[in-house]
User: Fold this.
Amino acid sequence: MASSSFVFLTATFLILCTLTKARNPGLVLTLLNNCPFTVWPAIQPDSGNPVLERGGFALNARAHRSFPAPTQHWSGRIWARTGCNYANNRFSCATGDCSNRLECNGQGGATPATLVQFSLHNGHTDLSSYAVSLVDGFNIPMTVTPHEGKGQCPMVGCRPDLLNTCPEKLKLRSPPGQGSVVACKSGCQAFGTDELCCKNYYNSPQTCRSSTYSQFFKRACPATFTYAHDNPSLMHKCSSPRELQVIFCH
Assistant:
């Protein structure tokens, strides 16, 4: 009799776990390419976090890819590589290139590039943080939209295409020189000064200030980070979202 009771209780427990999991499928990350051309998303985890989806893949125009987020705390960044191709047995991208790899496998990307920053399951809770950053420049419009979250979970990002309005000194062309404008550099990348890069003496909230160049990005996309010590409130928090959707060319 005791054995039968144990089996019954175990079966009941497993059924309840299965039902709970079905009702709470966990957080899903969706990358949607709304551009009229292929992009190559790249995913870089922060140190100590696992690589997701091998760190990169191709995403055709109007296509999407969804995958489960880690169930434990995870932080990292996502960006889109553009103008990628194979030539002479070598993979390379005009923007966002990660050491000539299709699958970045944890490698960082070349700047300038629009970035989405995530911190999922903060403190092993269901609170997730997200933001879009133009601190490293701009290469493609990007937004983040949480779905089915609790509380204030706004869409954030940069929707305008800034390539046409990018200041001449910040333009990145491919091929270099007279090629098409493929990205817009940050003031730091263009000029490399301590003040623009918020380095050394300028590496503090008190001394790192917005510049003419960061203000160009801020006017176009006010809900994004545009310099290293920008307003921390631009990192938004959402409780228990079921999906975080990153849209390229929203």
The first strand starts at residue 28 and ends at 33. DSSP finds four helices and 14 strands in the chain. The longest helix spans residues 2-23.
